[in-house]
Amino acid sequence: MKQETSPTPIFRLLAVPIDDKGDALRALVQEVNAGVSRGDVKRKDAGGEVFAVDPADFGQIPGSPFAYWAGDSIRRLFNTLPSLAEHGISAQHGASSKSDFRFLRLAWEVPPETIGKDRRWVNFAKGGQYSPYYADVHLLINWENDAEEIKAYLTERYPYLNGQTGWILHPENSYFYPGLTWPRRTTSGLSVRAMPAGCIFADKGPAAFVVNDQTETLLTLLAVMSSAIFETLVKLQLGAATAAARSYEVGVIQRTPIPDLTHHASRIPLAALALEAHDLQRDCDRDDETTHAFCIPGLARHRDVPTLLDAGLHLDAEAQARAARLVTIQTEIDELVFDLYGLTPADRALVRREMGGLTIDDLRLTSDEEEIVNRQSEIVNEDDEIAPPEDLPARVQNLLMWAVGVAFGRWDIRKALDPALLPPLGGPFDPLPRHAPGALTIDDVRFTTIGQGVYDLRLTIDEPEIVNRQSEIVNLPIPKDGILVDDAGHPSDIVARVQTVLRLLWGERADAIEAEACAILGFKSLRDYFRDPRKGFFAFHIQRYSKSRRKAPLYWLLQSEKRSYGVWFYCHRVRFDTFYAIGRFYVDAKRLYETGRLEDMREQLKALEGPAQRAHERVIARQEKLVDELKVFGKTLDRIALLDLVPDLNDGVLLSIAPLWELVPWKEPARAWESLVAGEYEWSVMAGLMRKKGLVKH
Question: Which residues are CB-neighbours of 213 under 8 A, at least 6 positions away?
């Protein structure tokens, strides 16, 4: 029998400025002593809050946290309702590689054919940024032969385990099954999202599973776990309503009470709302080419409007509409789940007040850069990342990056011209595809020789309406060798290829769209944008293709010292002879051409005199510098090619690009090269090649 005790007054001054806390506390104590604030109902004003609570009531919550602010009816839920575990819902710790640089990759970083269950790389859910209902799984883990390589590494690193690695890898888990996952440690709210089948999940991204893996049951559970009352009950166990850092551990989730959802009338509407929220969140990724859901860039979807600015306004309106609908969905879910828990109006008001900080669109859908910067200081999890704002300059750069991908044959422009060609996205728990919907597959291209060992791929067009409406697409060249150059007038000039893509999209308006794009980005021309490695395309590409502390750009730039000449290539097309091909068919050809021009200039000089002669001499001097620059570039490239250090993308982009560090205008490859030379990353293919050639310092 519970012993009756008197309620204890508890004072909360969290919202009171620190200099005023003393006076506020004194005033509250005087009021309590005068009998003003008594009973189970809290009292609040600008000077703080008073709660009257029996400390014995804290024992109703697992761990007896100091949950003074919650009413007794909410605390009693832990005694009157079964927990998740008692409902048969299994929450599980995930795996840890203990060496992420070695065993993790970004989804686009490795050859697509190596991804999938029973292959080398498996999709890896590892927490991430605040994104309820949906978040793309952008990481992979080396799970080949049941994580054989990771097990060997762990056995070597922890010899006292005697090969028993289960406490790190948790082989008993429901890997590859559909479920729900969330970031374990974060400063944001609890962020539960669908986890597709075919994934491994991490210790930083625990997962929950239901009996028989039923989609409707998972969606209903997703709605409940994303509700305000469920998060309130979780935070009560943590003793944290508004605390900065929280750990949403498996044990806490399993102990959280939940109503029986099996036959409740709210089951179907909750599942439908969760699915709609998932799809709305995923719609954001249709414009993001680093995700599994990418289709076409947003500005290309709205090319029917006069300007890029107008297209950007349409995208802003779409984002606002999504945000508004998501808020409405969240409100509807909260109300249905309040009903499930049987909460009174007073309890509901209490939960809303205590949980009223972070809304669903605070991080995922915001376009306010200042807000994002302010939230950066809260991050405690290396994977709790904040996505960059999608302002108009970022959208323009995304458009140009996609155009480069089209030029290289990574993306299918036909799907931008006719979105009906896009394959449908899968369900929330369907296995993730190896290729995004907007990708161009090898079945869509054919080979055409264009001379001197250089080949083009060209799209095959089977849709008559596209041919009739956009016949120029038949002539869209794609370099089979994956090489484009920064060289005006060259058939493989990257700027000309991007301009071709813009013409296919905008037709006669392409020049105006290009000029507007350059103005938005602050560059005089596309050539300047692609040539500037610090503020232009290469810097943006590196930034967008970096996640979870991995940097993995796919389009690599080799540039001469003064930036007068550059070679771009798509790393997934690199072969054993790629660097030789660049040297012979591109760099040498360019040097010979410019040397010939120099000789012609010198001949022309003989016929000039006076000011014309002096002006021409300055032109010759510039041409001589260009030829010398190309000679140095070619010699450096030849020296690198002779090392025969063929990249293996399973090593990851950074180690693969490292041998090119002298020509790549990016500091990271040089650092990676220094580490390789010093004997680090012995596990990599690159390190093995370097050791055979005596390039590693012992």
Answer: 177, 178, 179, 429
